Amino acid sequence: MSILLFPVVILAIILLILIFSLSTIVFVVKQQTVALVERFGKYQSTAGPGFHLKMPWGIDRIAARIQLRLLQTEMTVETKTSDNVFVTMNIATQYRVNENSIKDAYYKLMNPGEQIKSYIEDALRSAVPKLTLDEVFEKKDEIALEVQHQVAEEMETYGYIIVKTLITRVEPDQEVKQSMNEINAAQRKRDAAQMLANADKIKIVTAAEAEAEKDRLHGVGIAEQRKAIVDGLAQQITEIKNLGVALDEEQIMSILLTNQYLDTLNQFADRGNSTIFLPGGAEGAEDLRTKIMSSIKATKN
């Protein structure tokens, strides 16, 4: 019985050896990943996604699996502007391995993320001190692009591509922020006061222009009214003379002025007025008549 079991045991041992060997020979690489294979500690090949075989018993080994997907590292850098303001900047850098330089990406750098941070920090501390605080806020994208180009040149030799560098936040010192807010508030108050003053000025100028226009139109109305009176008197004088009345112009004018004077009194009384200023003597009416006669003669001329 024991003799019959001996071949079975041997077969089982052989199967176990084959299964163990198979696990050391076969390996699988996932999508967007590559595997670096070493033979006796020396770089042998780069395996892409899929099913692969390698030498067993430690002859070949997978040294590393490298991600080809886009990676991102974030960091915070404190630096000083040209106007001596310390600012804290949050930086986000997106990078990936160059598929044509996978070997360099693994063997030349121990920690690529930290290396990228060091280059970015050095680039920022060279660029930001040339600018004022306001310029840093205004040119944030330009600074990020300059840093990206500088770091990209450095990392290219190590097999890494810098895809994008973003400055996500610029934070000055708290006291500086408070001062900036106060300056901004004062500026807004000054602008508001200026706008109110301009509005008041416009109101005053508009009111003055309206008053001047009103006075002008009032004067035009009075002039037209007086001209109409004078024209009416001249026409009445002409009509009376045409009737053959034996009166000269001065006598006719005296009659018409008296009639006009009585009409004016009637209008004054109808409007509920109780006070009227009249010439102090006969010479006042005579003076009025003389002025009207002069106006009529000037109109005729």
> Rg from C-alpha positions?
54 Å
Distance between the termini: 163 Å
CATH third-level topology of the largest domain: Tetrahydropterin Synthase, Chain A
Number of helices: 8
SSE arrangement, N to C: HEEEEEEEHHHHEHHH
Uncertain stretches: none
The assigned CATH architecture of the largest domain is 2-Layer Sandwich
CATH first level of the largest domain: Alpha Beta
How many strands appear in the DSSP assignment? 8
Shape: rod-shaped
**Helical/strand content category:** alpha+beta
Give the biggest sheet. Answer: 3 strands, antiparallel
Overall structural domain count: 3
Explain how this protein is built.
With 301 residues, the protein is an alpha+beta fold. The protein has three domains: 46 residues, no CATH class; 108 residues, Band 7 domain (Tetrahydropterin Synthase, Chain A); 71 residues. Helices cover 59% and strands 21% of the residues. The strands form three sheets. A three-stranded antiparallel sheet has the order 3-2-5. Strand 2 and strand 3 form a beta hairpin. Helix 6 packs across helix 7. The longest helix has 69 residues. The protein is rod-shaped. It starts with a helix and ends with a helix. The model has no long low-confidence stretch (mean pLDDT 78).
